[in-house]
Amino acid sequence: MDKIIYDAIIIGGGPAGMTAAIYTARARLNTLLIEKSGCGGQMAVTDLLENYPGFNGGINGFELGTKLEAQVKDFGAQIVYDEVESISEGNIKTVKTPNAAYQAKTVIIAAGTKVKNLGVKGEEKFIGNGISFCAVCDAPFYKNKDVLVVGGGDSAVQEAIYLAKFAKNVTIIHRRDELRAAKILRERMLSYKNISVMYNTVADNITGSEKIEKVTVSNVKTKEQKDLKVDGIFVFVGLLPNTTFSSNVALDALGYIITDENMKTSIPGIFAAGDIRKKQLRQVVTAASDGAQAAISAQHYIEENEKLFI
Ligand code: NAP
């Protein structure tokens, strides 16, 4: 049997990748979506998306991910669960995973981002056992306990609000004197009496024998150190692009894929969409928009370059 050459291989099953798959499948392009773990991406571990248009009152991220996945399948795209290791250049691209080598005329990279570690002493020892990167996943373990949230962006404040419904006390430490999070989140946070913020504060060291016992924090201005007794730490200090697979697409200094406004990368026939690309606003709505644009660009690329695939 001849090896299948897909019209489009989409890497990543978050909102960008799944939207791209809906568009390519509706354009009747033979589409394969490769997802590492489960569809939904970071959205799937978000309790409430309240700024995605059309869902007044918000929608649970996992629920939206499940609906999107069903839509992708209904339009006829194929989904496989595997981790991409490399993407080759050439007229026909080869996408390799540990289990297979897939071929396609176009590739859309929508592999998203992963959470950044804090990088302080003691962190490695307690990851998965006291240190978490997902409140929706782990908050129930901290019922009536004291938790620390590190970070000052949308994730830190949104997740602190979620944690406050379980924990006794939630302390946010932020390295500056002003939170980066959206104003609406900061306002909402004020209504939770069990959330407090320590500004100009960083974590220096996490200690404990079996479990976390304390975190030593310091004030970046006064250099004064103090120990905080906490049961768990939730780290939200930003994101890193999932560009660890080998490919020659041009990246910026932080590792994000550089594209033009039509989602074209530096390599013809390879497109990027969503959080993995260099851009200003990383939201579900912009990921979906990128996915749609990348799919249309892939469709045009195939139509304009038919002779390359003979
Ligand atoms: P982020 O916006 O990059 O914020 C990271 C925060 O961590 C910043 O406040 C930063 O401080 C701090 N930080 C970075 N490195 C640190 C370190 N080594 N030690 C201590 N603090 C450190 O990341 P995010 O909050 O995960 O959000 C990522 C993207 O997703 C953003 O585009 C965000 O808007 C989006 N998002 C949106 C929503 C929503 O719309 N509801 C929810 C979640 C995430 P500085 O402020 O000093 O740089």
UniProtKB/TrEMBL annotation:
Q: Which Pfam families match?
A: Pyr_redox_2
A GO cellular component annotated for this chain's UniProt record is: cytoplasm
Record keywords: Disulfide bond, FAD, Flavoprotein, NADP, Oxidoreductase, Redox-active center
Q: Which cofactor does it need?
A: FAD
| GO biological process per UniProt | removal of superoxide radicals
Q: In what residue span(s) does the FAD/NAD(P)-binding domain sit? A: 6-291
Is Nucleotide-binding set as a keyword in this record? no
Q: What is the protein's given name? A: Thioredoxin reductase
